[in-house]
Amino acid sequence: MHVHPRRIAVAALAASTLLLATACDSGSGSGSGSGTGATSSPGSKAKPSSTPAPLTPARAKDALLAATDLPTGWKLEENAVIDKTMGAVDEMLDKARAQCTPLVTLLNTGRPEADYKSNLQQVFVKQGDETNISQDVSGYTREQAEKAMATLRTAVGNCSSFTATMNGKKATVTVKKLDVAKAGDDSLGFTVTILVGEYAMDFDFGTVRSRGAVTTVRNNWGAHGDRGKAAFTKGLAKAAEKLTAAAAGTA
Fold this sequence. Notes:
Region (Disordered): 26-56
Signal peptide: 1-23
Protein name: Lipoprotein
Distance between the termini: 33 Å
Keywords: Signal
CATH superfamily: PknH-like extracellular domain
CATH architecture: 3-Layer(aba) Sandwich
């Protein structure tokens, strides 16, 4: 994550960095375990379930952006994720009021709901710039995904400004709705500014749901170099297209 002084024109990069970890998680979030197969008596065969399954890790991979989906100059940062629980807890927001929890969850982990069935994250950077474009793809049950989008939309509407803490310091968070193209079964755009002392962190977010699959594209822009708006807009449109295709036939 990039930060820059709010009251100083020249950008300064703080100690925060992109998390270097395995970007592919084929498991599930808290509360999710591997399913148990149906049992059958000798001589009988279990009938395959006709109920669609949530987005699988393989299908989630199909929903990921490629560097060629972004404007020229952007490249994939290998093995980078945005989930702060994986090594950057000092950058996590805490102690916000309850109604803003969906926003805090997204800001801290990159995804709208912790209990995922599949999850992949990736980050793109542009040489010489502070800005980075990241993407999360998560698979849920349809009910989970619909609820996650609804609660996130409510939080965006109710939490235009709230306070939290970051590494023990007061953080003031400002949220504004952002117009994004309609996509998938549901879509939502918003901007976030986190101010800690004189340092600000600025983001554009676009979240799209197709069936039980959700993708979020995040533009974390800095004071130096590309604002990232063109890459964000193009990336979000392509991510929505890929998600819709990958989620076809899933729960």
